[in-house]
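BUG-258 | component: ligand-complex export | severity: low

The export step for nicotinamide-adenine-dinucleotide jobs runs without errors, but we want the raw record kept on the ticket for reference. Input record follows.
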Amino acid sequence: MPGRLEGKVALISGGASGIGAAAAKRFVAEGARVVLGDVQTEKAERLAAELGASARSVALDVRDERQWADAAAAARSAFGSLTTVVNSAGISVPATIEDATLDHFRQTIAINLEGTFLGCKAAVAALKDGKGGAIVNVCSTLGVKAGAVFTAYSASKGGVRMLSKAVALHCAAQGYDIRVNTIFPGAIHTEMVEGYIAAGEAQGATRDQVIEGFAAAHALKRLGRPQEAADAILFYASDESSFCTGGELAVDGGLLIA
Ligand SMILES: NC(=O)c1ccc[n+]([C@@H]2O[C@H](COP(=O)([O-])OP(=O)(O)OC[C@H]3O[C@@H](n4cnc5c(N)ncnc54)[C@H](O)[C@@H]3O)[C@@H](O)[C@H]2O)c1
């Protein structure tokens, strides 16, 4: 039986780690070929080698428009086309409005929001002349329901939410056959959450207390697994979601309704 992504070629930003890496593994298992773009180049190379002939890695800093064009070109030269772009690269360093510096705010916006803007721009340029395709943006429940210690992060993800809809509307209006959809993960146990755990420990909490604190915010009372977010990305990347654009899929253990 053919895989659910047979024939797809996906460029995944933040593909070296966490949700992006889980998506890369899932995509390859479903017949796609993938290019992992990340600033952690050695980690991306190792994962691509592990995934075999269906995977490559490229150096990609999502803040750099030129590197996006090069990454899209690398996908085409390695695999003959580009059909799918997943914007998963992101950072999250907790800080309230009183603690956050302007530099911290700008860095978060530059990677999470401007990086996704540039990823969408590169994707539309690459996909509109091909056979169409899909853009999947990784937002966050914090883009819908803000957190006091996530000032810059909530602002960046709120921006990603509306950016995605504007791009979806433009592509539809132009008849580009490019679908743009967004997933909204709750707390997913990746390196990002490990960063929160380390920050909590530095303030005197135990590892278990921090994890339980995050888990308590979710109706299902646990953290999510990277594979669970990857499954939602897979849906939006596959033709099973052919009538979805501008869509929002929460992968949040019920956080937004709890
Ligand atoms: N883990 C969570 O709880 C959670 C929840 C909601 C949303 N998200 C979002 O999911 C996405 C993936 O996060 P994750 O949890 O897998 O974290 P992660 O830290 O495991 O992975 C993030 C990846 O992005 C890469 N990256 C950072 N800055 C970059 C840049 N300038 N250019 C290219 N790559 C860069 C990192 O090197 C890393 O490989 C992020 O957008 C994050 O905001 C995560």
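Assignee comment: Attached the raw record above. Residues 102-127 form the longest helix (26 residues).
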